[in-house]
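Slack export, channel: ligand-projects

TW: morning all. Re-posting the request from yesterday since it got buried. We need the structure predicted with the small molecule present, not the apo form. The ligand is NAP; the SMILES is in the block with the sequence. No rush, but it would help planning for next week.
GE: picking it up
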Amino acid sequence: MNRNPHVAVVGATGAVGLEMIKTLEGRRFPVGRLTLLASARSVGKKLVFRGQEIPVQELKRDVFSGIDLALFSAGGSISKEFAPLAARAGCVVVDNSSAFRMDEEVPLVVPEINAADVKQHRGIIANPNCTTAITLMALYPLHRAFGIKRIFASSYQAVSGTGAKAIEELQRQVRQVVVGEAVTREVYPHQIAFNVLPHVDSFLASGYTREEMKMENEGRKIMHHPTFRASVTCVRVPVYRAHSVAVTADCEKPVSVEAAREVLRGAPGLDVVDDPSKNEYPMPLYLAEKCNCAVGRLRKDCALDNGLCFWVSGDQLLKGAALNAVQIAEVLLQ
Ligand SMILES: NC(=O)c1ccc[n+]([C@@H]2O[C@H](COP(=O)([O-])OP(=O)(O)OC[C@H]3O[C@@H](n4cnc5c(N)ncnc54)[C@H](OP(=O)(O)O)[C@@H]3O)[C@@H](O)[C@H]2O)c1
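GE: finished. pasting the full token output, ligand included:
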């Protein structure tokens, strides 16, 4: 690839797209030229990159000629339609939607875990589900050390995981509750302010949601661990930014808290924040806008012989989306 690639951000005005622009700038990715694409609704808007205002253009089928790298975050249907077109025009696509994640020809990558898979791409590389990516930042180093057979987990997912409209929904509902107005809903099926919804994504016949099954399916592919099993309950919580996951991991080998902590201290992109005597543990409020994820509340599971419990938090707009996508792009340039 061109050493100073022409980069396009598709879905530039969205929650992930805006982080993509900031991350490209913050990590000094060697962007030669930046093209910002969104729907016709956003034409006329300008977004700032390296101090310069860049006009947002409408995503059209012929925009990809001359673009080297396209970071897609405009939803699955847009990716399905436009990512193959972009790839055919010679552009490498890093896609944030779930459209291609389980496609055998598409690498699904968390660079700290399986960066080498990037090289097998045929024009499209997929970015994993945000809750899965954050969980694996702690789970994969433990898997290498102790062999993880299966996990039981519950997520606590921020509203920004649903996109810009959901952030507005929480802000509006908090104000409505505080001033005593009737609460209005547009994004979620129930009030999210001062509530928690045990419902992320659509329900399957099994009773799990699609989001819940991503942990097992995507986890197997990223960790190259085809027998990995995950039983997950995904919960939306009234937090603006950063997801958290409570995990119980069932290990093949005996595991101690000390040995696990040592492994996690050496893991890239992960901080250990774990001192219950000082009330220190990871919290989404403090992980928002941070590149690293954090793990804490390490303890031996009291109901499993080789079980380890932990709590991992991370900014899903960064490690679960924009940061991971830009890290993939950095691997492409190596
Ligand atoms: N939010 C997260 O934490 C997260 C994490 C991982 C992956 N993802 C994935 O990233 C994608 C975007 O999520 P988001 O949270 O950023 O959503 P969002 O805030 O709703 O943003 C959606 C973006 O897509 C654009 N868009 C919508 N329809 C379009 C069309 N017909 N043509 C061109 N652009 C169109 C929007 O442009 P307009 O402003 O012009 O409407 C906007 O820029 C989704 O696939 C999501 O699953 C999100």
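GE: first-pass observations. DSSP finds nine helices and 13 strands in the chain. The first strand starts at residue 6 and ends at 10.
TW: perfect, thank you
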